[in-house]
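Exercise 7. Given the encoded structure of a 178-residue chain, write a plausible sequence.
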C-alpha cells in the first residue's frame, strides 16, 4: 500500500513536470491592453531589453527594473540598451531592494502604490513566469490588472527542473503556511 502511494505521488510529480515544461509562459499578445506600468524581473537574458521595447512601444507608461544590483545606474543601462537616455531618465526606475521572486513582488507592490498605478505588465523569462505570476498575484491580490509578458528562451533541462522544484516547493510552503 505504501509503495503504491509513493508510486502515485512520484507519477503525479513527473506528470506535473511534463505539463510545466510544455506550458511555459508566453509573450503578451500584440493586442494586449496598455498598462500603467511594466515590471521587469532581473536575472535572465533579454528581459531588460524587452522591458525597454515595451516602454518605447507605448505599451506601458513607466518601467521598474526590480532586483537591480545597487551599483547599476541609468547611465549603465543607456550604454547597454544603446537607446534614448531621455526615456530612461523620465520613465525607468531601478529597484534594488529585492533579492528573489517573492521580494520582487513586494518591491513592485510598494512601487505601484507609490505611483498610484492600477495595471502592470509582468516581464520575465518564459520558464520563470509561472512562479513569478504566482508570487505577484499573492502579493498584489486583485488590486491590479496583470498582463504577463514572457521573454522566450531555450531553457535547459536543469533550468526547467530547478524552476519546477522551486515552484512546487513554494506552493507547498504557502499551503503549509511556512
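Solution.
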Amino acid at each position: 500500500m505504501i509503495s503504491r502511494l509513493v508510486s502515485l505521488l512520484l507519477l503525479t510529480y513527473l506528470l506535473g513536470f511534463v505539463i510545466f515544461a510544455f506550458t511555459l509562459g508566453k509573450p503578451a499578445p500584440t493586442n494586449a491592453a496598455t498598462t500603467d506600468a511594466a515590471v521587469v524581473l532581473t536575472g535572465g537574458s533579454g528581459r531588460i531589453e524587452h522591458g525597454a521595447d515595451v516602454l518605447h512601444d507605448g505599451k506601458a507608461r513607466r518601467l521598474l527594473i526590480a532586483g537591480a544590483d545597487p551599483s547599476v545606474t541609468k547611465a549603465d543601462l543607456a550604454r547597454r540598451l544603446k537607446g534614448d537616455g531621455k526615456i530612461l531618465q523620465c520613465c525607468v526606475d531601478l529597484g534594488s531592494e529585492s533579492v528573489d521572486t517573492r521580494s520582487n513582488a513586494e518591491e513592485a507592490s510598494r512601487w505601484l502604490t507609490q505611483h498610484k498605478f492600477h495595471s502592470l505588465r509582468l516581464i520575465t523569462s518564459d520558464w520563470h513566469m509561472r512562479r513569478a505570476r504566482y508570487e505577484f498575484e499573492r502579493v498584489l491580490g486583485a488590486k491590479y490588472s496583470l498582463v504577463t509578458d514572457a521573454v522566450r528562451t531555450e531553457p535547459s533541462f536543469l533550468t526547467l527542473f530547478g524552476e519546477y522544484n522551486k515552484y512546487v516547493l513554494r506552493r507547498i510552503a504557502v499551503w503549509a503556511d511556512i
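Remark. The chain is about 50% helix and 20% strand. Students should compare their own answers with the one above.
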